[in-house]
Inverse folding.
């Protein structure tokens, strides 16, 4: 009996680490997608939602008022100096905007999904505050393996009971979204 329990535990652990076990959470559209740090990845995430036929609104500078009628908030963290410059804002203002939006969504009972597909390039000290903000109330976290080489997302999600979906390639995002949004 003890051997069976160990075998089941090992199997479940392997499934979680490879992304084979999807989060139990399911979500609804419409979805508001926003960047946290003004990286280009929010547009890529929006493309995958469209590919999965899930209704979205992409708003890189979304504020709490934009949450009206929204059923799910997707936050895509990743610092980009070029993106911040193009948006005409600095890191402090962007982080304040992201925190306000996330707090408003949480207060309104709107589930939040953190999607990090920027790989190693969107990790580090400049992206970290945006990643932490994005995960604060996350109901699920979806991560491209290259951005989780150090196990940060695995450890943080385990510690905070956030279901984690990992992908070997960002190309698998639409497939995973269809499972998270089954009624779309």
């Amino acid at each position: 009996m003890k051997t069976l329990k160990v075998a089941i535990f090992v199997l479940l652990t392997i499934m979680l680490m490879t992304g084979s076990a999807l989060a139990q959470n399911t979500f609804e559209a419409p979805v508001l997608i926003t960047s946290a740090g003004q990286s280009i990845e929010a547009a890529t995430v929006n493309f995958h939602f469209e590919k999965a036929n899930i209704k979205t609104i992409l708003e890189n500078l979304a504020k709490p008022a934009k949450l009206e009628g929204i059923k799910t908030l997707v936050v895509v963290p990743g610092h980009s100096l070029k993106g911040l410059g193009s948006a005409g804002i600095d890191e402090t203002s962007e982080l304040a905007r992201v925190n306000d939006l996330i707090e408003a969504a949480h207060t309104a009972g709107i589930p939040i999904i953190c999607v990090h597909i920027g790989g190693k390039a969107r990790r580090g000290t400049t992206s970290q505050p945006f990643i932490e903000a994005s995960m604060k109330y996350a109901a699920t976290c979806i991560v491209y393996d290259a951005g989780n080489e150090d196990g940060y997302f695995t450890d943080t999600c385990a510690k905070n009971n956030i279901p984690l979906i990992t992908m070997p390639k960002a190309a698998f995002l639409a497939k995973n979204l269809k499972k998270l949004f089954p009624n779309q």
Q: What stands out?
A: DSSP finds seven helices and six strands in the chain. Residues 2-18 form the longest helix (17 residues). Helices lie at 2-18, 41-51, 81-87, 91-107, 128-135, 152-159, 173-180. Residues 6-23 have pLDDT under 50 and may be disordered.
